[in-house]
UniProtKB/TrEMBL annotation, chains A, B:
Transmembrane segments: none annotated. It comes from the Bacteria. SUPFAM superfamilies: GST C-terminal domain-like (SSF47616), Thioredoxin-like (SSF52833). The lineage of its organism: Bacteria, Pseudomonadati, Pseudomonadota, Alphaproteobacteria, Hyphomicrobiales. This is Beta-aryl ether-cleaving protein. Pfam families: GST_C_7, GST_N_3. Residues 15-82 form the GST N-terminal domain. It comes from Cohaesibacter celericrescens. Residues 99-198 form the Glutathione S-transferase UstS-like C-terminal domain.
Length: 228, 228
């Protein structure tokens, strides 16, 4: 039976843009598990699987309901140890937890500032007031003032990617020859930006951009084919 | 036979302050390997083990000479698989490489700016001109203008530690209940600051400061006892 993935969508139900949901989508593909994605609006999250959820991704694997992208990845690793490993050992889980926080604190926070109006404009009408209110509370200013594509912001973003750039400059993936969960974790953030916006965060000759292109090609172009 | 560790020292040969050497020192202790440290001035690095070295740490394990802290840790893991694991699996090695670069790019670069004059003042007279020249080339200004302990710089430093803070707020070490190489990698940077300076980078109630205190206690206080 396919694993259900409640997957955030915009007004176009085929546009799945959540960075956290992309982490889970890629993790499921890495494991080769069959998935049924359920397009989910922000305003529908509270009614998922009988209620009680506040964020996506949420997966339902038979009777097991799990949330939080990192916890889902660890669940999949332990529930399906015979399928290709996401973490390649317990140490990989521990250090990937750090990389999860690095991605949130460093990558997501900056991409949000580049794209927040694009995200807002793409949302279903039912989600717009929730999104505006929650994000304006978080950033303490109107969405129109959150978005910042100044050269200074772009340069700072590119500089902050140095640890990733140094890691993947001489190898295809963070995992070496093959991707691991840490790749999907960071990929999710760039795919988020790609799904909602045409803004160019990266220079095309940046090793990070080339790594992202390799990730887009994985699993028969799962990431690349999501946007036409 | 003990493994030789060529360990950077200041004018006081007992003061070992290199962040990279501390990574190796802790990795050797984690493996429970016997070590003989060789105090080494900057100006002595080129004559280590017959010449050809440009940086420390360098280790000599019998006939095998290795350099670069990360490569040394991987070497120790593979050469002594029966001793306590530094990485807990291949995935841990891959993601720890990212954390090595994060530590260099984020932690070391900022601690250098807090402490560079303290480092300089503690050096042996034979090392001072090399240090001044190489660091002034790197930072493109006099040492006296590199050092920056402004409140803005301190706040930015503390904020940049968020991924580490989130990781160790609910567990003792990045490795969970037990430390792994990723802990030693970042520990080395804070120990560097502690060895050369009394400047308080961290607030004492910061979870990062508490994690650092736990690291200082490891291996019968190996880190703590290095400074009296």
């Amino acid at each position: 039976m396919a694993i259900k993935l409640y997957d955030l969508c915009s007004a176009d139900k085929n546009s799945r843009f959540s960075p956290a949901c992309w982490r889970t989508r890629m993790a499921l593909a890495h494991k080769g598990l069959e998935v049924e994605t359920v397009p989910t609006l922000f305003s529908e999250i509270r009614s998922i699987e009988g209620g009680g959820q506040t964020t996506v991704p949420v997966i339902a694997d038979g009777d097991t309901v799990m949330r939080e992208s990192f916890d889902i990845a660890v669940f999949l690793e332990r529930a399906y140890p015979e399928l290709p490993s996401l973490f390649r050992g317990e140490g990989g889980i521990r250090t990937s937890q750090f990389m999860h926080w690095w991605t949130n604190a460093t990558v997501d926070s900056q991409i949000a500032r580049f794209c927040i109006l694009d995200i807002y404009n793409g949302l279903d009408e039912k989600d717009k007031s929730y999104f505006r209110q929650s994000r304006e509370t978080r950033f303490k200013r109107p969405l129109e003032q959150v978005q910042d594509r100044s050269e200074e912001a772009v340069v700072r973003f590119r500089e902050s990617l140095l640890p990733l750039r140094l890691t993947i400059s001489k190898q295809d993936f963070i995992g070496g020859d093959v991707p691991i969960y840490a790749d999907y974790c960071i990929f999710g953030s760039f795919q988020w930006g790609r799904m909602v916006s045409d803004f160019a965060f990266l220079e095309t000759d940046d090793p990070v951009a080339k790594w992202f292109e390799r990730c887009l090609d994985l699993f028969d172009g799962l990431g690349r084919n999501a946007k036409v």
